[in-house]
Each structure stands twice: as structure tokens, then as C-alpha cells.
Specification:
184 residues, two-stranded parallel sheet, 2 strands, mainly alpha, Nucleotidyltransferase, domain 5, globular
């Protein structure tokens, strides 16, 4: 996005996020003046969005997003010109690849978790689909059932992931012991 002023950010947030996906309960932003502006703060208050901000110079506050950006930069590095003049052209493609790739922590693609189904992938990579005719009621029930199963499986996967991280930490990280008079 070329313009980063508060008015543009507020308009794009409403048009591209709120109107497509609904109103968030909480939003985490960086300390950019466009997000800290009175206009954006008022938009959040009007929509009853709890607004949180990251700590300056502490990327861990928003670590998942920082990791996502790092992956997107790796994708883009393969396709953009050396002077990066066509970066905006390739960003939607890199985003699609990221959103259709299963994530380690969840075992699902971001697309599946957001829309309740795997994305349609163009060409020979696309899986064969069965021709199912839905009525609205059946579709809603199946979507709810799928969502409930995702939540259960995510909780199970997340619990195992945390146990694995804890095991790795417990077995490979050695705490340093300090005594009075040691130089640190």
C-alpha cells in the first residue's frame, strides 16, 4: 500500500478486513503513527474492538506475524526483480502459497482454519472433488461440524506441540548458575 496515512489505513481496514471477514474482537498493531492516530482509535472504539499495541523494539510481542513476514520474504525473494520494483505484483501469490501450506503448529493450512475447507489449487495439484449438492441448512450444519472438529484437533495438536517444545527445552537448554561475585 503506497499511502500509509491514518485515513487510508482506517478505510482499508474497514473495506478489506471488516467488510470481508467481520469485526474483530481484538486487534494487535505496531506503534506506527497511523495505528496510534485518533482516527484509527475512534474506528476501533466505534466498532468495539479492543486495540492492543506491540512494544517498541520488541519483535517477540508479535512473533507469529514476524515469522510469517520472514516466510513471505523468502517466497518473494525467488520471484521479484533485483530492484524489487515488482514486489507488489507477487505478494498475493506468495500469500496464497503461505495460506495453502499446512502449518507445523496446527497441522492445518490457514485457509482451512479460516474458511473451513482446503483451498482450490489450480492445475494438476488440485485434488479431485466429489460433486455434492448442498442445501443451505446442510451446508451450515456440515460447516459447524467441520469447525468443531478443527477446534478439537487443533487443541490436541497444540497440546502435543507444547509438550514437544517443553521436552526440547528441558533436555537441551542448560540454565547458567551464577554465584555472588561472578562477572556477568
Amino acid at each position: 500500500m503506497l499511502q500509509q496515512d491514518a485515513e487510508t489505513i482506517a478505510r482499508v481496514y474497514v473495506e478489506e478486513i471488516v467488510l470481508k471477514f467481520g469485526i474483530a474482537q481484538v486487534i494487535l498493531t505496531d506503534q506506527g503513527s497511523n495505528f496510534l492516530s485518533e482516527l484509527f482509535t475512534n474506528v476501533c472504539m466505534l466498532l468495539k474492538i479492543k486495540k492492543l499495541k506491540t512494544t517498541a523494539y520488541h519483535a517477540q510481542t508479535n512473533g507469529a506475524l514476524e515469522r510469517t513476514h520472514r516466510v513471505l520474504v523468502e517466497y518473494l525473494r525467488c520471484y521479484i526483480l533485483e530492484d524489487q520494483s515488482d514486489r507488489d505484483k507477487w505478494l498475493p501469490y506468495a500469500t496464497f502459497v503461505f495460506n495453502s501450506t499446512p502449518q507445523t503448529g496446527t497441522g492445518f493450512t490457514p485457509h482451512e482454519l479460516l474458511f473451513g475447507r482446503e483451498p482450490n489449487i489450480p492445475g494438476i495439484l488440485q485434488k479431485e472433488t466429489t460433486e455434492i449438492q448442498y442445501r443451505y441448512d446442510n451446508y451450515v450444519k456440515e460447516l459447524q461440524y467441520t469447525y468443531d472438529n478443527y477446534v478439537k484437533e487443533l487443541q490436541y495438536t497444540y497440546d502435543n506441540y507444547v509438550k514437544e517444545l517443553q521436552y526440547t527445552y528441558d533436555n537441551y537448554v542448560k540454565e547458567l548458575q551464577y554465584a555472588y561475585g561472578n562477572y556477568v
